[in-house]
Automatic annotation (TrEMBL), chain A:
Protein name (Swiss-Prot/TrEMBL): ABC transporter ATP-binding protein
Subcellular location: Cell membrane
Organism of this sequence: Agromyces lapidis
InterPro entries: AAA+_ATPase, ABC_Ni/Peptide_Import, ABC_transporter-like_ATP-bd, P-loop_NTPase
Keywords: ATP-binding, Cell membrane, Membrane, Nucleotide-binding, Transport
TrEMBL record, chain B:
Record's keyword terms, sorted: Cell membrane, Membrane, Transmembrane, Transmembrane helix, Transport
Protein origin, superkingdom: Bacteria
Protein name as it appears in the record: ABC transporter permease
Subcellular location: Cell membrane
Bilayer topology: Multi-pass membrane protein
Limits of the ABC transmembrane type-1 domain: 95-285
Pfam families tied to this protein: BPD_transp_1, OppC_N
InterPro entries membership: BP-dependent_transpt_permease (IPR050366), MetI-like (IPR000515), MetI-like_sf (IPR035906), OppC_N (IPR025966)
Keyword Transmembrane: yes
Family of the protein in this entry: Belongs to the binding-protein-dependent transport system permease family.
Coiled-coil blocks: none
Higher taxonomy: Bacteria, Bacillati, Actinomycetota, Actinomycetes, Micrococcales
Segments passing through the bilayer: 31-56, 99-121, 133-154, 160-177, 215-241, 267-288
Amino acid sequence: MTEPLLRLDDVRATLRLRGGEQTLLDGVSLTIGEGESLGLVGESGSGKSLTTRAITRMLDPAFRVTGEIAFDGASVLSMNPAALRRYRSRDVGMIFQDPRAHVNPVHRVGDFLTESLVRDRGVDRREAERRAVVLLDEVGVRNPEQRLRQYPHELSGGLLQRVMIASVLLAEPRLILADEPTTALDVTAQSDVMAILEEQRRARGLALLFITHDLELAAACCDRLAVMYAGQIVEQGEHVYEAPSHPYTIELLGARPSIDERVDRLPVLRYDRATHELLKAEAS
Amino acid sequence: MTTPSTMSLAVARVRDRRRATGFARRTADRLGVVGCIAATILLVIALAAAFAPLVAPYDPDYPDLLASLSGPSPAHLLGTDALGRDILSRLIWGSRITLAGPGLVIVIATVVGTLLALLAAWRGGRTDTAVAWVLDILFAVPGIVFALIAVAIWGPSLATVVGGLAIAYVPYVARVVRGASLRERRMPYVSAAWLQGQSGTGITFTQILPNVQPIVVAQAVSSLGFAVIELAAVSFLGLGVQPPTADLGLMVKSGFDSVLRGHPAEAIAAGTLIVLIVWCVTVIGDRLTSSARSMR
């Protein structure tokens, strides 16, 4: 088997606290191949965002991370600072949940888009702006030339998320990490942004790790799904949505509201930490 | 996608008009009415000081001993001092040092203080603790003590006093900027830039500094008022600018002797001008501070 683009092998992140230790990522293993998309779903606090932080080595120093994270065969956890910078700026691109908070409010959109190209890649300023305009146009931003001169506060949330996507695409990474990119947007903007992200990703053959708590959305646009609970991946594969096998996934899918039938009350999830521990003990 | 509505066109037009007037308009908005008045007064004083050779009616150092301590007259609008020098001319020339000296103090203190604050905020941990300690110690010592120590070592002169006060004013700027930088450092856009592979130095100067810049300016201007008073006080003590150079603090001192002989004009004129300058600077500083706060 050839080496996948990204491979996480038994990754554990332990937070050292005054009263002891708490394991927040408990043996996460997953792979993403070149050009493949993986949807990572799970409830709040299950460790989805922590996983992306571990992949980019952006976890707080208070965490102890063990296991193996390999990008294109190179171990991320043992990279030196220069290699790490290179990996962050060229190999992975990150799209955040709240674009407004992740863009410097005093920089113009154009500067935000072009600064890393000009600084790190030695691209001529004019050329960088030209590329930015082309990309903004591709992600559906109207009047891209005018947008370049505007400040983030002059743009709507949906528009800013497109700018964010364009900024990631500009860096030409091989893997995109999208941490709930649509959660802060309204429903119509959500579907627009997802469609654009998916279209651009396919056209460029980029790999995607898509984090969400929207199972349907993840199932619709990802090649494979992985379901997380309590810092572990409980189930992953291509047919998780159609044929779930883990009790948590089955319950989760059973609790979806449907427009086909009328129900007074949605079932309550009975799967909890205790059940989880019990199942784990049985399995081993 | 929306079509451009009448509303958005109107908004765009208003914005264009705003932009056309640019920097002056924005500054005026930030200063308010009183702030604008203060800025105008300060500008007039500064211009008069800058073009002192053209504006001043007499040579400030020419002693007309026969006309000493004459009261205000058409020839000498504010009268003459004990040596018969024209008070108005000396005020105009004296404003030069009274503005430039503290100005230099604040420029040095702001540059050093901001760099220290950014370093502390970015490095965090022990560096931050060490810088905070040093700043607290400096802050505990009155500025005038630094000026006196500097004078004790290098002898009385303007440069010595400016150097001593500059050290004393570093914490005035650094403490506030450090706090603001620490707040900015925790903002998501900083970690986003970090994730893009930007270096720590790059992030500090291109991401954090532009965001704390209004606070830096506001704090620098606010401190300027204190610096004016302290430099004048040092001159008054006879440790800064040396006679016969015209300086407002020095004029208060020499005027002080005349007051006892019944001629208060020099002391009052110089004292009033100092108060006026400090008032203007303080008002502008306050306005800038509150508008910098409201941006957050």
